[in-house]
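User: I'm putting together notes for a lab meeting next week and I want to include a structural view of one of the chains we've been expressing. I don't have a solved structure, so I'd like a prediction I can at least talk through. The sequence is below, exactly as it appears in our construct file.
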Amino acid sequence: MSKRVIVAIDGPAGAGKSTLARRIAGKLGFLYIDSGAMYRAVGLWALRCGLDLSDAHRLEQLAKEARIELQPENGRVLLNGEDVTEAIRTPEVSQAASKVSVIAGVRRAMVAEQRRMASETSVVMEGRDIGTVVFPDAEIKIFLDADVAERAQRRLAEVQARGEAIDAERMAREIAERDKRDRGREMAPLVQAPDAIYVDSTHMGIDEVEEAVLRIIRERTSNGKEWNS
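Assistant: Thanks for the context. Below is the predicted structure for the 229-residue chain, given as structure tokens.
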């Protein structure tokens, strides 16, 4: 078999989706579509243009005009030809990204771009609506989950590694609140696609999760090595 393949990984916050998606993409030579980086790039450009982050019309136009490139060989992110890999990771840009990402027109523009990317090469993408909205026809759909306590502990470790101070109780509360928002939001809520395979990573290390998902991918395709990437 020689074809392009789409691997869609959905799940709640702290389940390990981003780490898994990067590893799977790297192992298979697929493009990792970092949707978070794409929304951050739009947020950065909006800030630079001095736009009102509640101006849905202008932000939609901005998102449509943005030329965002994801470079799998080095993990760099380009916006209109400029390397913005570090610039999009500031707290200010993170706040902007969270605001622009809920605008329907911005999401439509980003989904269109993500689908364009997948039309050219095999991809791995993670999020909360990838298998249901972005790539409903994906060949491989994974719903990665873990219990709330474990997800909170993982997020706590990430935050502490960055030198930020937060206690475990607050982190668990924030994870639970995020779950409620993600599952209850009107646009593209977090839900497991009917044809997605459920993977509970609560008691698994990342190596075990990676191998389990690679096994699923191999089983879902006739030959795990002959893909166009």
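A couple of points you could mention at the meeting. Strands lie at 6-10, 31-33, 68-71, 76-79, 82-83, 123-127, 140-145, 197-200. The radius of gyration is 17 Å.

User: Perfect, that's what I needed.
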